[in-house]
Amino acid sequence: MNFYYIMRNVLFDGLTKEQIQALLPCLGAVERSYAKDEVIIPAGQPLHSLGLILEGDVRIEHVSSWGDVEILTIMEEGKTFGEAAACARDTELMVDYVAERDCRVLFLDVERILRPCEKACPSHNLIVSNLIALLARRNLELARRSFVMTSRTIRGKVLSYLSTAARAYGTMSFDIPYNREQLASYLGVDRSALSAELGRMQRAGLIRFKKNHFELLQ
User: Fold this and answer.
1) DSSP reduced 3-state for 55
2) What is the rounded radius of gyration, in angstroms, for the C-alpha atoms of the chain?
3) How far is it, in rounded angstroms, from Cα 164 to Cα 168?
4) Strands of 213-216's sheet in order across
5) What digits encode the pLDDT tens for the residues 176-185?
6) Which residues contact 18 (CB under 8 A, 6 or more apart)?
7) CB atoms within 10 A of CB 158
8) How far apart are CA 215 and CA 218, in angstroms?
9) How much of the chain, in percent, has pLDDT values that exceed 90?
10) CB under 8 Å to 30, separation ≥6 — which residues?
11) Predicted pLDDT at 122
């Protein structure tokens, strides 16, 4: 098992590789692989484990009763997904988790994380604290998306999203995890209208972009 992204995830902050290796069986760790566009976890069922992406990306999407697909976000390597739903216990998912590309996911049983360890080991106590921090970060991410969506114009949504991304990456030049269709879905706008607005913003000297690479100029 590749421990690179496991060690870097906030869930395992403060733990050594040896401590994590000893802890994983206690957490019911299971690693699974998925092909591109394969549904990892479908909507309509409860979730009992959180997923940590070891390789590839995971797309979170909502499909309406009419078949319209809205992409909520794409989780990259090293990120976790499903932690809030798993903590909610027996609450049916409202979204699908789908492999954006071939990926490997490490699943951890949330009930085992939250259950007091019989040995009362410091490693287990620390991971419970880290899970709370992880849930808080996820709540802030949802708040940021809500802020992006408050703008009434496409330009306002784009600028808000790119500004947030620039702060997250710590640079004015970065790659986003979405193609045009996915970005339009994330922002809740028409793809053609988005492409036209991006062109106007580039001509106005606000941004520079090529495919999914963006640079903020002002």
Assistant:
1) strand
2) 19
3) 6
4) 173-175, 213-216, 207-210
5) 988 998 899 8
6) none
7) 22
8) 9
9) 55
10) 49, 106, 107
11) 73
28-67 residues labelled b (16+ CB within 10 A) or e (exposed): ebeeeebeeeeebbeeeeebbbbbbbbbbbbbbbeeeeee
Q: Which of 97, 99, 108 is nearest to 48 (CA)?
A: 108
Tell me whether residue 206 is exposed, middle or buried, using C-beta atoms within 10 angstroms of its C-beta: 0 to 12, 13 to 18, 19 or more.
middle
* Per-residue pLDDT, 120: 60
Handedness of CA 78, 3, 103, 91 (dihedral sign): negative
CA distance 66 to 5: 38
Q: Which residues of the chain have pLDDT under 50?
A: none
Spatial distance between the Cα atoms of 89 and 129, rounded to a whole number of angstroms: 19
Phi, psi of 54 (to 5 degrees): -90, -25
Report which of 15, 4, 2, 3 is spatially closest to residue 131, judged by C-alpha positions.
Answer: 15
Q: Which residues of 173-204 are buried (b: 16+ CB within 10 A; e: fewer)?
A: ebebbbeeebbbbbbebeeeebeebbeebbee
Q: Going edge to edge, which strands form the sheet with 49-55?
A: 30-34, 103-109, 49-55, 80-81
Q: Are 111 and 79 in contact (CB under 8 A)?
A: no
173 bridge partner residues: 215
